[in-house]
Every structure is written in C-alpha cells, then in structure tokens.
Amino acid sequence: MKGIGRICIVGGGPAGVAALKYLLAEQRFRHVVAYEQRATVGGVWNYSPETDGEVPLPVPSTDPHVPLDTPRWKDGARDPFNRSPRKIPEFQSPLYERLEGKDVDVSEIRVTSLTCKLANLPKMLMQHSDAPFGAGVQLFPEHETITSYLDRYAEDVRHLITFETQVTHIERVPYDEHSIWRVSTRNIRTNSSNVGDYDAVLITSGHYSVPFIPSIDGISHWNSRYPSVISHSKLFRKPEAFRGKKVVVVGWGPSGSDIGAQIGEYCDTLLVSVRRDADLPNLPSNALQIPEIETFLQHDEDRARAVRCKDGSILTDIDSVLFCTGYLYSYPFLSNRISPHLIGKGDRVEHVYQHIFYTQAPSLAFLTLPWNIVPFPVAEVQAATVARLWAGRLQMPNRFVIEEWERKGNEERGTGKNFHKLAPPADVSYVNELWAWCNTANREFDIDGSHKTGKVPPHWGPKEKWMRVNVPAFKAAFLRAGQGRKHIKTLSELGFHFPGDDTVDERI
Predict the structure, then answer these.
(1) What is the DSSP string of 118-163?
(2) Mind listing the pLDDT tens digit for each residue in 327-381?
(3) Fewest C-beta atoms under 10 Å: which of 74, 88, 136, 491?
(4) What is the arrangement of strands in the sheet containing 165-175, beginning at the earlier edge strand?
C-alpha cells in the first residue's frame, strides 16, 4: 500500500506499544500516535482490585453494540506539594485475586488453583522477542512483575501515547481520489474533544471488555427478582466471597476451571454447568457436573432461586450463578456506516484477512483478535505484517486468495467464535506463517549493506513449539512446588528438558 503517512493506533496496551515499535522501524510514516483510555500502559494487566457492585452488568449480555466504558476515579499518588492526591481513571480489568497464602492439597493440584494474578505462561514464551524478563524472574511471572516489565518496554515510545483519552468515533470519509479515516477522541479528564484525519487506523484495544451472558429462558426476570446473584467472571475478584454458598459455575474453559477451582475451596456446593456431557479437565473433587441450564424458574412458595436443566432436573436455593462464558467482540467507536459491517453478533470480527486486515479497506487493521494464544509474540508478528504492508513493502493478495483463506477458516474452525480460536499448536503455525510473509517484504539497505528499515518479528522453532504445547504440564508442576515456586526460574529446575537439548539457556 502507498500513500500512508499518518497512522492512528487505538489502545496503548502491550499490543499498541509493540505496534508503535514496528511502525517506527519502517521509517516511512510522518505521524504515528496511540490513544489509551487508561493513565498507564499495560492494558488489561492494570488490575482493578475491587468491584463493590459499581460495575453495571446487563443480564443477559448479548449485544456487542454498547457504549464506551466509563472510568471510575480512584486516588493516585499524593503530590508532595498538594495534600489532595490526583485522581486516576480506572477501568474494569478481567484480572482477579491470587490465593497467595492459602494452603492447597498438592496431591490433587489443579493447573490454575493459585492464579490469576500469576501468568498462565512461562516467561520465555510470554515475553517480547527483544525484551527478556530476566534471569531473576520466576518461571511464571507475577502480576506486579509483568506490569513493571510492560512499563519498561514502553519507555522509548511512551511520548507517542496520548493517555486518558478515548477514541469515540471512527469513520471512513472521501478525500481527493481516495478515502481517509476520521477519528474523534475525548480526553476523559477534561472532557475536551478532538478530531483528526489519518491514512490508516490500527485497533489494538483487545476484546475483554463486554461480557457475554447468554439469553436463557427466564434469566432477565430471575435477575430482577434476585439481584446480584447472577454475575460474570469479569467481576470475580476473591473466592472468599463465596464461602458457605451454593454456587453454579457456567462454562469450564480457562477462566471457568480456574475460578471454579478457587471457589471450590470455600463454597458448600459447587455445580458446574456445561453444554455437552464430557469429562471436564481439572474438575475439583467436591464439584458436581450438571447439564446446561434450560430455564431460570420463577419464584413460588415451594422453591426459590431455582433453575431447570436440560435433563429436567431442578436445582433450588442457589446463592450464586457465575457465568464464565467469555466476551463479545465490541468496537463501539466504529461507525455503523463502515460497510460491510465488521461486527455482527459479536462472536467474531467479520471480513478480516489473517485475523488482521479489513478486506474492504486494508488501511484498517486489528491486532490480537485470535484467542487461546500467546499474546505478546502474536501481537509482534501481526504488527510487523501491518507495518510492512502499510509501508508498501508487502502487498495484499488477490480476492481469490482472501476468499479461500476465509473459506478454509470457516471449514476448520467454524463461522462463530471459534473462527478466531488458535489453540496450540495452531498459534505456533500462525506466528510462523506471518513471519514467512514478512520475510518476503521488499528490503532497503544502507550503504554498508545493513538493513535500513524494518524490525525483525519473532519466529518459533521446535523448542518453542514444544514449550507451547506443554504449558499445562509446566504450570501444574510449578504450582506443586507451593511457596518454593518463587525460586524456580527455569524449566530445567522443574525437571523439564527439550529432547536432545543439553543447553541451559532457556531464553530467560
């Protein structure tokens, strides 16, 4: 693509910071800016400790076309010359508390029973390709370590991020013989607005904002009758809140199994509702698997807080229903005049090639739409692809190639939310496929023969693939170490060795 000089990035989290670095490395663009609604980099790793019922939760929650998030203002660091601390905007994060001090039965350890402010990935996989965590960091880093790491990683591009600013509207408008993107923003502290025109827009704001709660018969009335009984994993913080309760966890994916394991240590009864009758991994010994909920029953004299399952069984006196059912893709700032529409039901983003480029206008792109991935390396290789294509060093394939890619994805993963699912080793293949595409870019050289432009993205070899597919085993062994895990820095210290590799260097 040619003629791109002004670029707007939506989001200043890990993906947005990576995008800035790769775009700048092309040395082709006149103006690059990122807008971030939070006061700091870090994205969802900016933990919001308590919800206190302040975050509204529609029940059901099936509409991706919702307003922008509203910040809660909390006290920040105190100004030494002012007795009143500066207020800091806080947005709800999906992170939740970690049971650091709780004793667990390591003979029946569950892969995620101590998290989630603990990374779910070992540091040598999670880290950016040019910024190792460091030899002194434990194998699965803690939340505070990750936020500090991301803050350091952003040091050289922080001046290009406009913080405490929301992108409120993006539309495509004609300009001379082509189209540009008109971006409206609002400073959430001063409420001042601004409008700017850009040749390209890169959306890196993630997809963990709008919870998905399915529309089940009777759920709306039930929620009105028993307010605060129904919740979502996004609002979960501490398992102690479920002490002595009868709890239904709906869904048993990564968040469901993790949260369910924590709640199981405190609640009286743990019921796990899933759609299909299958053996669930890491199911606590005190949990009972139940069928999918069919109806939330109205209150009567004989039963209260009751649901009917698809097998006809009725459960009563439920104290909490926690939906661990994921999130909707939602970009409320995208104009509904952008056609064809990118967001339908919210279970995926439509009309994107390689989970990145809007096929109708590749000057609009996304990072980290896929899920069940290793986010930082994926964001990097996607950013490298975007940077090279917008710099004119790569070209979009023809319509037939794009349509075939879409058809194959629909056939292999389905047309719904699983279209963006790249569970290992699919994410390994995806990283390497994009790396190979990047490697076909036209190259420019300085007089001495060195590369003049471009930043080299990550590539995963056999060892990285081995690590990726064995993450659950690594995590289980790490947690079995109990409090001693703080001293575990490498896989070899856990007893894992890549076959045929006698080296001790684990890219730490």
Answers:
(1) B-SS-HHHHSBTTB---TTS-SS-BHHHHHHHHHHHTTTTGGGEE-
(2) 999 999 999 999 999 999 999 999 999 999 999 999 999 999 999 999 999 999 9
(3) 136
(4) 165-175, 178-187, 193-198
Tell me the residue ranges of DSSP E strands in 216-286. 230-232, 246-250, 269-273
Give me the pLDDT at residue 277, please.
Answer: 73
Examine residue 60 and say whether the peptide bond preceding it is cis (omega within 30 degrees of 0): yes
Backbone dihedral angles phi then psi of residue 32, each to the nearest 5 degrees: -130, 130
pLDDT, mean of residues 404-410:
97
* Paired tokens of 112: 């995620």
Measure the CA–CA gap between 74 and 412, rounded to whole angstroms: 46
Cα–Cα distance measured from residue 61 to residue 325, given in angstroms and rounded to the nearest whole number: 11
Token digits of residue 15: 């993906």
**Measured on CA atoms in the order 24, 47, 35, 63, is the torsion positive or negative?**
positive
Q: What pLDDT sits at residue 303?
A: 87
Q: CA neighbours within 13 Å on the CB side: how many for 176?
A: 3
The pTM of the whole model exceeds 0.70: yes
Mean pLDDT on 473-493:
93
Nearest-angstrom CA–CA distance, 76 and 87: 5
Residues 6+ apart with CB under 8 A from 97: 49, 117, 237, 238, 239
CB 327 within 8 A of CB 209: yes
Look up residue 480 and give its amino acid: R
Residues 6+ apart with CB under 8 A from 172: 179, 180, 181, 182, 335, 337, 338, 361, 364
Distance CA 220, CA 59 (A): 6
DSSP for 98-110 reads --TT----GGG--
- Is-contact 3 362, C-beta < 8 A? no
Residues 37, 332: Cα–Cα separation, whole Å: 14
Mean pLDDT confidence for 441-465:
85
pLDDT the model gives residue 53: 57
Percentage, residues of the chain above pLDDT 90: 76
Q: Does residue 91 contact residue 47 with C-beta atoms inside 8 Å?
A: no
Mean pLDDT to the nearest integer, 415-428: 96
Residue given tokens 């420019």 in the structure block: 444
C-alpha span between 361 and 366 (Å, rounded): 12
Supply the pLDDT for residue 113: 32
More confident residue, 181 or 452: 181
Is-contact 149 126, C-beta < 8 A? no
Tokens representing residue 231 in the block: 């919740």
Instruction: Mention every residue, 6+ apart, whose C-beta is less than 8 A from residue 283.
Output: 252, 257, 260, 272, 289
pLDDT band at 105 (very low <50, low <70, confident <90, very high): very low
